[in-house]
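Deviation from plan, reported transparently: zinc ion complex.
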Amino acid sequence: MSLAVYNTMSHRKEEFRPREEGKVGMYVCGPTVYNYIHVGNGRAYLVFDVIRRYLSYRGYEVLYVQNFTDVDDKIINRAREEGKEPGEIALLYEAAFLEDMRALNVKPPDVAPRATETIPRMIEMIQGLVDKGYAYAVDGDVFFRVESFEGYGKLSGRSLDDMRAGERVEVDERKANPMDFALWKASKPGEPAWDSPWGKGRPGWHIECSAMSLHYLGMGFDIHGGGQDLVFPHHENEIAQSEAFAGTEPFVRYWLHNGFVNIQEEKMSKSLGNIILVREILKKYPADAVRLLALQTHYRNPIDFGPEALEEARRAYERLENCFFALDAFMARPGLRTAPQRTQREVALSDSFFDFERRFEEAMDDDFNTARAIGVIFELAKELNTYLDEQERYQTPAAPMVASHGRDTLLKLCNILGLFSPEAVEAESRGAGASSEETSGGFPTAERLIELLLEVRAVARENRQFETADLIRTRLRELGIRVDDLRDGQRWKYVGPSA
Ligand code: AMP
Ligand code: ZN
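Because the crystal trials were delayed, the predicted structure below was used instead.
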């Protein structure tokens, strides 16, 4: 079965055939590091994280490159506002971005180049474009001559006339065409600057991504991703520069763009001031609930990240989590023995696990249809819950084996989407419960106190004082701490106060 991906360039789904068999090179435009990222940006990185995970699952060797734009007007302005150096601002927000990605359980890129570390490559490209007549220098700036590149507009499907009408371009008398864009910008005093054949200056944003992607992946790499707002002008310009420089095409085989996160039907963006930061949302909701919300809609469609949608996603996440807990609790029953003889019902159920996997793959092969894939996961969870209910009435000899197979299948499918991933579970148990810090400023830490309460609760249960045990659990839940009973004791987790 083949994988189909929607290519923005052709406006249709195409069979995915990478440049080199078994290998995928992908480049995703990274953040401009001048503030904390919002949920809209978060969606873009979650989407490409899942695409990358699925390609790896499909057996491709994936090389994932995602840059940091660490020199830009926005960074310079921010530094000026805060009385800091631009480099300081960039490092600060780069670290914050990495923290947010870890919290969202997005896998780190294989290569994460900073624009400022690839400047010689950018200068080389710009010089090449000047030499070939695609670019011209004026007063220390260098512009790309859009009219010199025949395919200009092929990604966004706009003609130069449409572009001029649609964009508010500042009039700059020095440009041959108002749509010509800067490859190199002369620096003003006090701004970050590098030596170049055109004097001191810095690269434009578009050439940064061309230089970095070509440096690590070479012409004709497989997937270039980003949000839909990057189609024009950013990606259109990347194509023009890269193909003009190389003298060949294509720059990229498949262009993938995620839809927006909207707030009341308006794009979430810093300029509109309607943003919710990733770090704010993660204080209230588990990362997997946010991931689930992002993936319950196909990546090319818009999503509204309102409070109701978030609460619904939290409930959905808890349904899955409960299914895992119920399976674990079942398999942990004392004295449970397993025998291989399955009932007819169990044979059919075990067979259906393979069917669930197949349907999951079919959904993902259809342009990464995570919405459908998640539907399959919930159906499987429902089947498993029904099976566990049946076991309450009559326990069959092969039940532990069948339940374990079901659990493995459920976990496998979740993991492909980055849900309930082993890395995240490990980080969480390091952060909670197993804290190495026993005290903070002489006081016992919250973790120690929670453990103490759970010890008391265990004794209460042993003495059949269930009211006390339940009271401890309910009161902890009110404080945002969820307690579950597992085979080897109790497990707790901070999930935030219930709404
Ligand atoms: P930026 O830092 O603005 O360049 O954005 C980083 C990534 O987030 C890019 O791929 C953008 O296209 C994407 N992005 C920005 N805003 C949104 C939004 N509201 N919804 C989805 N993706 C977005
Ligand atoms: Zn880019």
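The CA atoms of residues 169 and 393 lie 72 Å apart. We consider this an acceptable substitute for the interim report.
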